[in-house]
Amino acid sequence: MVNVLQSKRESSRFQILVEIAAHQPNLRQKEVADRMGVTPQAVSEYIKELVADGLVTTDGRMRYSITKEGVEWLLERAAELKRYARVVMEEIISHVSIWTALAEDDLKEGERVSLEMRDGLLYANRKPEIGATGITISDAGKGEDVGITDLKGLISLDEGKITICKVPRIQLGGSRKVNLDLLRKLTSGARMVGCLGIESLVALRKIEHEPDVIFGARESAVESAYHGVSSLIVSVDEQLPSLLDRLESEGLKYELIDLTQE
């Protein structure tokens, strides 16, 4: 779940930072309070926190400016909201009347069940203390697809991890210069492995690991991450800039590992 949506405090700090960024250095605290539905005193206390945390600066005369750290904090949470909204639009709004889930128990028509997202798939079960629930529209056996309506609550969506393995281009040795032991270790147990470049494909085949995705590996990594599925992308160094640009434009976090060995 997005932190800004989980916490009233985080939500308020986010909104106030947006107002400061939009109207700096002059900020009318009463107007902000009216828009947020809180008291001016509450806005003042939040601003004091933001100043203490180094996200906002003030000259002591009711003039405020957002700091570099404040901009980074704001952009990070805005990216979280963007990713969450994207999944909501794709997975919820497009199927607002009836969802489809995998039944993890034998379920009866009209039963209120718990809903959770795992490995990019929606599951219906009887687990207690889960934030989202819905009502089944038919009987369903364990492992069958089941229609769900009357959604209540929010489904927790954890972003998948993206690991990028850098392989040297052929001019620098290609697959012959790849640390195959490290590559073997990294691919072991990986849910989804993609590759970019012939050098990457050959390196994977040298450890007898055929990639799951060759064409469209960038988009696959993005979609997988949005649906909570971690992936490993083996990429020749020439294609890294466009891959990293794609991930950064989506606000996705990644780890870059250089497989080049001396």
Question: What would you note in describing this structure?
Answer:
The protein has about 260 residues and is an alpha/beta fold. The chain folds into 3 domains: about 90 residues, Arc Repressor Mutant, subunit A (Orthogonal Bundle), CATH 1.10.10.10; about 60 residues, Beta Barrel (Beta-clip); about 100 residues, Cobalt-precorrin-4 Transmethylase, domain 1 (3-Layer(aba) Sandwich), CATH 3.40.1010. The chain contains 9 helices and 11 strands. The strands form 3 sheets. A 5-stranded mixed β-barrel has the order 3-5-4-6-7. Strand 4 and strand 5 form a beta hairpin. The longest helix has 24 residues. The two termini are about 45 Å apart. About 25% of the residues are buried. The mean pLDDT is about 85.
Summarize the structure.
This protein is an alpha/beta fold and 262 residues long. The protein contains nine helices and eleven strands.
Main attributes?
single chain; alpha/beta; Arc Repressor Mutant, subunit A; Cobalt-precorrin-4 Transmethylase, domain 1; 3 domains; 4-stranded parallel β-sheet; 11 strands; 39% helix
Per-chain topology:
Blueprint lengths: L2 H4 L1 H16 L5 H8 L3 H13 L3 E3 L5 E3 L1 H24 L7 E5 L8 E7 L2 E5 L6 E5 L8 E8 L9 E6 L12 H8 L5 E4 L1 H9 L10 H10 L4 E6 L3 H10 L4 E5 L4
Parallel strand pairs: 3-5, 8-10, 8-11, 9-10
Antiparallel strand pairs: 1-2, 3-7, 4-5, 4-6, 6-7
Helix pairs in contact: 2-4, 2-5, 3-4
